[in-house]
Records
---
Amino acid sequence: MENLYLLIDLDRCYGCKVCQTACKMEHGLPVGVQSCIEPLRHERRDGSGKLQCDFVPTVCLHCSEAECMKACPAGAITRDDNGFVQISGEECIGCGSCEAACPYGAVTVAEMAESVKAVKCDLCVERRGRGMEPACVQHCLGQAITLCTGAELESRTQGRNKWSVGHTVYMSSKMTKLYE
Amino acid sequence: MNTRRREFAVKLLGTECDPDYRRDILDSILNGTHKLAPLQRKTPCKAAPKEGEEAVPTVCQSCHTTCECIAYRDKETHRVLRVEGDPDSPQTRGIICSKGLASPDLCYNPKRILTPLKRVGKRGEGKFEPISWEEALDTTAENLKKYRSEYGPQGVAILEGTKRGWSRVFSRFAYAFGTPNHGAAGWAQCFLPRTTECNITFGPGALYSETQDYPNAQCILVWGCNPPTSWPVRANDIMETRQRGAALIVVDPYLSEIAAKADIWLQIRPDTDMALALGMLHIIIKEKLYDEKFINEWTVGFDELCRSIEEYTPEWTAEKTGVDKELLLKATRVYAKCPASSLCRSMALDQVHDSLQVCRATSILISITGHVGKPGCNVVGSSRGEISQNTFDFIRDYQIPEEVQKLRCGYDKFPFLTRRPCTIPSAHMPTFWQQVVSGEPYPIPCAMIFGSNAIVSYTNSNVVEKALSGLEFLAVADMYITPTAKYADIIFPVSTWLERENILSNFQTDNTHTLFQQPVTHTPGTKNDIEILYLLAKRLGFEDRFWETPEALYDYLLSPTGKTYRECVKERRLYAPLEYEVYRKKGFKTPSGKIELYSKLMEEKGCDPLPRYTPSFQSIQDTPELAAEYPLIMTTGRHENAFRISENRLNPYLKELVPKPYLEINADTAAKLGISDGQKVLVESPAGKAFAYARCTYGILPEVVMGISGWWYEFNINKTVPWGQYSQGIGSVSCRGYLCRVSPAEE
């Protein structure tokens, strides 16, 4: 299977939080458990002292060097055929090692219906199996989030500033230096 | 809060921004070379249920946008499992907002009322016992009759909330019953200033200038409106067009979600919208940026307008609004020079001290620049073949005899609210509530409130609460025991939108489609308001003018199309193409047949025929004595992405999104007041006090704070909104710019 990428265009994100709710509903996450995706507002002064305000949908970066995978004692975290990092619910023992290891706050251990499990973005693998886009991609008001192939990634990011450590790619034209 | 996520977001964004980002867009509009990139739309796809589920297409009614959606239900039990956007919808192209996504809780929240209730404790105490529908309806009808015969129809108030599928049936009920005191928390505060103004400026049937042709717009001017939190389809359209190269200009005192994406953000002081509009008109006229041919052909009063804007120079405007003069000039030139500019205005303009007039000023702006009816502009007059209850023939307001109409609260003062051309001739609500308290000039002891959490939704809530506590009989229809329903004698449990039929056909929904909602599930014990009104009408002897079932009503409304409601549900939607420049065929239905820049009608009713500047009722400069004690300017009325007005406050998924009632405050001001980010604060004005939690920002001026309305009980910011002065002609309360003070509070 081909490599896929979660591409996030920061210039298009309104911070409306629709992705956050769509993800929670799709994954049946209980109230109090963090959504796998969460847009955060950030105000700051740019180099010239001008006020800037942007929004970042924070989500699993599907790292090439995935700390969560290394930390998992049960071997429950693997890479799928598209390149995304996946947690197997059956093998997860809910120990929280992955949560502690992830530098980006993308994984959380939550009390789900049957048992305590690690939860993070799975790119809506079940939903895509039904022929639909991931919940955040479909519902995003700014169409800031897309799922794309390697070729599409190349054409969509052309001329844009981008940053990635794996299969989640952030891009922007406004921000000239992502991840300082 | 997950601190690692926060740290990541901060690092990712960094501090380096391209100073020339999107500058070429403004430049190319100014030099006349601007083009939009081609429109590329996502491929539609079909919604796919999981095993054991059924996908039911319907329309979300969590707000006025009304997005086509898919409700997934259990095949056997019909329990609603999820609500999602419909990826096959031409209206939404798959989106829906958090309110829609979290909708199943509306049906299944354990606090939902599933049987009629009767008060057993003291009024307002919140103690009720279940009764039968029969008893609830009989008791209410008897009381309505009793108070009408003892006090006259004016002694019984019939009040509603935001627009639903039954709203004008409710107006029809009020006028059939005979009361002149029909009203709502919105209306003069939301919607009626804009619709009434359009009736005045463009003529009846112009269908509001709110029909924007976003896909073809090269410049979008968003004024007092934040679509990402309150208008999802519009937000989607605007972002799509922005990314294709349209310039985005935003007028907002706060760095809102949409303002954060603006190419030019005009950060005005609250309630100085009129100064800005007049300043823009001045620049357009002085720099001859207007469309002379269009003005000559299609407007009246341009010469008078030119004379009236003389004093509103860019320097004057900059001083009044706080907007940088160069930015003002640039924004005005871009908007006016661009051949395809759409103006998107909303509720903020209904809630300033000169609401009707400032709506007029923005319509004049559209008109003299020729941005009327053309591709990419405000397509005034285009019809989507409305299946509408919003007609005088439907509401039958003429049933109220003239001498009774004159008893309508506020009749003498507010001609554009209390009678036609106002689209719903209705009572002036601040006058009304004060009269309920005082009993002068006549008593109003009885009320029926459907779909409105009045205590929270009206301004100056302490007076509203006092009025409700003094009523002799109150019937309320709602899904929950809201702070308002607590004061009721009888509560009718109503169905949710997931259990209803409805026809959605208006500018807020879509420019070209009429949509059809169908029930996804059924909750025993509850009824649609349409059925309740029929059953009450039956007891009052005028059921011949009402409909026993919602379907019967919608069949009636659809009869001109030759289709039934069921047929339309199957087809999902009716389509009518966007029609440009309709006035070339039909003219404008004003007395002059043209756009009335100068309005004789306004003049006849004692209002300014042309908009002019008047200072806010309260401001630091104009009311210095009040400002000495209350030094901050409050603007409130904004909606957040999780809620519309006071709704959904019991939904745990939405509460999680916005867990606290925030008060946006400038970080430096907060520091001076000894307030830290997230701290509980007390907001006070001479009208009352409310609590909130400070959210420090640099996206608001140091002298301004922004409260969020809709929170219940001690967090209800509407308690601080003063009454006493109202907008000319229509009587809006200014909740976007009054004085207050803020101090740290005990947790």
---
Amino acid sequence: MDDLEFRRALFADPTSNDPALQKAKNSSPARQKVSQEMDKLDQQIASALNVDVPDDLCDRLILRQTLASHQQNKRKTRIHLALAASVALVIGLSVNVLMFSNAYTNIADYALAHTYHEADHFSNEEQTLVSLASLNDKMASFDGSFSQDMGELLFADYCRFDGMKSLHLVYRGLSQPVNVYIVPDSEHLQFSANFSDKNLKGQTIKFNGKNIIVVGDKSEPLKQWQETISNNVQWST
Amino acid sequence: MATKQIRYEALVKALHGDLFRYAYWLCNEKQVAEDLVQETFLRAWRALDSLKDEKAAKSWLITILRRENARRFERKRFDMSDYEESTITDTKSASTEQEIENHWLREKIAALPEEYREPLVLQVVGGFSGEEIAAMLSLNKNTVMTRLFRARNQLKDALDEEPLKRGQYNG
């Protein structure tokens, strides 16, 4: 190891355990002196680099981390709460939309659908009949009454007619029951006077603020039914 | 969670001193150094799970701190090579000879080019080998050894040149 190499190796790392450097250190008195001087300088450097660390730095580091992770936890729970709230809101809104949106746009479609839906509950052979008094009791909430029986009334009760309170009457028909709906006028259901599909047909008459819809099978004389109703119904307003 | 907290506190206790000293010599300002150490440990907390080898903790933290320091320069470009003497604060009054000497030598170290100072600090304060420093600074080992040589050589020259001037601090 020549002098330059020695100096470079020593200055780069005075505490090195490299055997070649150790050997070189002791190879001459001059090198020993240089080596000792360098050891002293390195101690001085170490002492100078060893600046005071603020006493409370350690505590502050731990405190700040504790606060930060506490904040983070709080933020997390808040995010969870917000997420839960959003999900609940979305569910609420969609249920609302699904439940209360109007799937039908005109009175005919709904009346047919309603009739098919409840067809199983009514039979033309039903023996118990509803009295005129009981019918008029129910008609009272529609501000109307019937002056006499218009046929054999098998069933009379309130019904939801596309979300509106209505009266559903079922009369014995020729072969199938005849359905009569007394429905308030609505904006979202379009009026249609005559309608039919492959099994059923229907007629609607407009009174003041009410519609009376008659739905029966193809053989039923609906015009006659409507005339009977028109002749018997009385509106109090 | 609890074990993470314990690991973190152990890490802080064991390494905050060395990390602070390294930061101090990187930026020459106590306050900035403290901020750097704070940021470094906060980042370390978030990434603590990625630290598998406790032995590598120190170099891991130093790597985070160097990145933080670089980020500081991206945010605010002030020229650190404009070294001002006033930024080296001596918290204790220089009373003993050792402290006077430290003070004098600190100014010389602070005046070293950063590329020489940083490996020196890593070697003397951090206790890292030439290979480890080379890996941390993304340099090859020969470059690191040359810089270490130059750092000590400049300090030795300064020491040899101004032996008398040091006396003026005695007054």
